[in-house]
């Protein structure tokens, strides 16, 4: 795992955008793994800014896979998908701005009749696309990755999960009232996420410091799903000063990044 302590969310956004752009330039038909939440937004905005300024790559041939999706959200008043569904969120926050069409973006299917087979169908789609080249990840304040709550098997696959009270409270800000946050979700499993070729975890703010320390320096444990990154051969963790503040080896991570060979890249 490469832990990269950076100076600000803006610096993280620039580095994350560099990583994604490098993948798409090298492989125009790249497969991008997308995360929701507030944390990746500055990186998404930076990608859109560069694309619209004409200095980013073209995204016409990419395929995207969302990490997770709510189950049981009512339709929007116009009959479309709910504004807080992750399908709508990813379109609004990233893919529309990059000119990536809805047919290029996949998400787990939360339709009520489809739930029993939604996991295996999503896994098959990811496999058919050749797997994910670079996977954005955030981390929950309880250490969850995607919607793999503490206790999730480190080998888990895409399936339905029940949110913890903590996660529902954390996500209530996106809804009119806490009671509107769905109780159930579909999420890529930790075993699914581990198959992406490059994991790019971003964490910012003091509220993530304990979860980051547990994931990066704690024991490998289902009690901290984020710790599964320790098993991945190419995981990059981009942190602002507040999110990095509880790491014991922080000085070492800084030394490593400062002395990183220029040819190596992230
Ligand atoms: C949600 C998402 C995760 C995300 C996490 C943290 O529960 N399913 O993918 O990493 O929240 O979100 P935020 O970045 O808003 O703190």
Brief descriptors of the model:
binds 2-amino-2-deoxy-6-O-phosphono-alpha-D-glucopyranose, three-stranded antiparallel beta sheet, 10 strands, globular, 266 residues, seven-stranded parallel beta sheet, Rossmann fold, alpha/beta, 32% helix
Please sum up the structure shown:
The chain has 266 residues and is an alpha/beta fold. The chain has helices at residues 9-26, 41-52, 86-95, 115-128, 165-171, 190-194, 209-217, 250-258, and strands at residues 2-5, 31-34, 63-66, 68-71, 105-106, 134-137, 159-162, 184-187, 198-203, 235-239. The chain has one domain (2-258): Rossmann fold, CATH 3.40.50.
Walk me through the structure.
With 266 residues, this protein is an alpha/beta fold. The chain has a single domain (2-258), classed as 3-Layer(aba) Sandwich (Rossmann fold). It has 8 helices and 10 strands. It has helices at residues 9-26, 41-52, 86-95, 115-128, 165-171, 190-194, 209-217, 250-258, and strands spanning 2-5, 31-34, 63-66, 68-71, 105-106, 134-137, 159-162, 184-187, 198-203, 235-239. It has a 7-stranded parallel β-sheet, with helices on both faces. Helix 1 crosses helix 2. The longest helix has 18 residues, at 9-26. The radius of gyration is 18 Å and the shape is globular. The model has no long low-confidence stretch (mean pLDDT 97). The site of 2-amino-2-deoxy-6-O-phosphono-alpha-D-glucopyranose has 14 residues, from helix 5.
List the helices and strands and how they pair.
Elements: E1 2-5, H1 9-26, E2 31-34, H2 41-52, E3 63-66, E4 68-71, H3 86-95, E5 105-106, H4 115-128, E6 134-137, E7 159-162, H5 165-171, E8 184-187, H6 190-194, E9 198-203, H7 209-217, E10 235-239, H8 250-258
Parallel strand pairs: 1-10, 2-3, 2-6, 3-5, 6-9, 9-10
Antiparallel strand pairs: 4-8, 7-8
């Amino acid at each position: 795992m490469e832990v990269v302590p950076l100076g600000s969310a803006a610096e993280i956004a620039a580095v994350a955008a560099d990583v994604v752009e490098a993948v798409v330039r090298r492989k125009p038909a790249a497969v991008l793994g997308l995360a929701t939440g507030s944390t990746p937004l500055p990186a998404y905005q930076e990608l859109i800014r560069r694309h619209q300024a004409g200095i980013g790559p073209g995204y016409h041939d990419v395929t995207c896979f969302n990490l997770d999706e709510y189950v049981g959200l009512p339709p929007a008043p116009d009959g479309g998908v709910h504004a807080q569904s992750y399908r709508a969120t990813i379109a609004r926050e990233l893919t529309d701005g990059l000119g990536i069409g809805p047919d290029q973006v996949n998400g787990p299917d939360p339709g009520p009749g489809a739930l029993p087979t939604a996991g295996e169908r999503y896994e098959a789609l990811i496999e058919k696309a050749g797997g994910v080249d670079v996977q954005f990840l955030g981390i929950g304040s309880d250490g969850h990755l995607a919607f793999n709550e503490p206790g999730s098997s480190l080998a888990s696959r895409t399936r339905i999960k029940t949110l913890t009270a903590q996660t529902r409270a954390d996500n209530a800000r996106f809804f009119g009232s806490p009671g509107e946050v769905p109780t159930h979700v579909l999420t890529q499993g930790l075993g699914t996420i581990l198959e992406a070729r490059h994991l790019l975890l971003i964490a910012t703010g003091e509220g993530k410091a304990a979860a980051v320390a547990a994931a990066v320096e704690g024991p490998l444990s289902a009690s901290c799903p984020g710790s599964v990154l320790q098993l991945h051969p190419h995981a990059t963790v981009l942190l602002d000063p507040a999110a990095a503040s509880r790491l014991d080896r922080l000085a070492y991570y800084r030394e490593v990044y400062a002395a990183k060979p220029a040819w190596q890249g992230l």
